[in-house]
Write a structure and sequence with these properties.
The chain is mainly α and about 90 residues long. About 70% of the residues lie in helices and about 0% in strands.
């Protein structure tokens, strides 16, 4: 009989009991990383604005996926924090 998982187990471990903090980036995170790098390298232009928009949409999708389907509570909390940080940074 399997023992009941504690909150700490659920926060740091996946359903197989493996400790998971970082994972291989998915396509949305790769797109955001590329857009972020390009936004630093490009001078202000319409193209740069479009790159930043694509990056913003991509990181929002990534964060929503983590929040809804993250492998543990840590990953879900990370998704929530990214969504909140994005919202707060774009309010002002």
């Amino acid at each position: 009989m399997a023992r009941k998982q504690s909150f700490s187990d659920k926060f740091w471990h996946d359903k197989h009991g493996q400790f998971v903090v970082a994972q291989k980036p998915n396509v949305f995170l790769w797109v955001w990383l590329f857009s972020f790098a390009m936004s630093i390298l490009l001078s202000p232009s319409t193209f740069k604005r479009d790159i930043v928009l694509v990056g913003g949409i991509s990181i929002l999708i990534w964060a929503a996926l983590e929040l809804g389907w993250g492998v543990n509570y840590f990953r879900r909390t990370l998704g929530l924090c990214v969504l909140l940080l994005y919202a707060v940074s774009h309010i002002a």
